[in-house]
Amino acid sequence: MNNWNKIILDLCGGTGSWSKPYYDNGYDVRVITLPDNDVRLCPPPPQGIYGILAAPPCTDFASSGARWWEAKGKSALLEALSIVDACYRIISIANPVFWCLENPIGRLVHYLGEPVLYFDPCDYGDPYTKKTCLWGNFNIPAKNPVEPTEGSKMWRCYGGKSERTKRLRSATPPGFAQAFYEANR
């Protein structure tokens, strides 16, 4: 099978940075993300899905926002879990060769169990930290560790609540995206 007919679904893909190495290498990448596409409303996926990358919004899961969880109430958590549930539904129906669901460290472990892998971007060549969890059925990418000279740049560079800063915070680090592609192509 050539790459050009291997379909990759990028669920809640936002910037498309995680699926970019697949796109750059000729895969048929389909980004399903807000505002145009809500994974909860997606029809069943087509046959022959090769891989699924899922990155549900972390706003109501990430430990970095824990101080606001109580004020948001349970409805925000239920809304966020409905997106995770939709990702799992699509994965279950598609039965791809590989799949992976990503989210920063936080309370999603209480709903999905222990992740297959924890990583920081500096483990894959990007010099900053942002502890991230991966669940799924995938090959673990080979690490290329570097010193985290930028520390936690999410706080330093991307604070605030604007849509722009949310997108920048949620972008998959390019070193990890490439390593994941290399391990799961």
Describe this structure in words.
The structure is a single chain. With 185 residues, this protein is of the alpha/beta class. It has helices at 20-24, 69-94, 109-112, 153-157, 163-170, 174-183; strands at residues 7-11, 28-32, 49-54, 98-104, 117-119, 132-137. The chain is globular. The mean pLDDT is 86.
Number of extended strands: 6
Q: Can you tell me the overall shape?
A: globular
Please state the CA-atom Rg, rounded to the nearest Å.
16 Å
Query: Which parts are unreliable, with pLDDT below 50 for 5 consecutive residues or more?
Result: none
Strand order of the largest sheet: 2-1-3-4-6-5
State which percent range the strand residues make up. 15-25%
Rounded average pLDDT? 86
Number of helices: 6
Structural class by sheet pairing and helices: alpha/beta
Distance between the termini: 11 Å
Largest sheet: 6 strands, mixed
Order of H and E elements:
EHEEHEHEEHHH
Key terms:
single chain; 185 residues; alpha/beta; 6-stranded mixed β-sheet; 6 helices
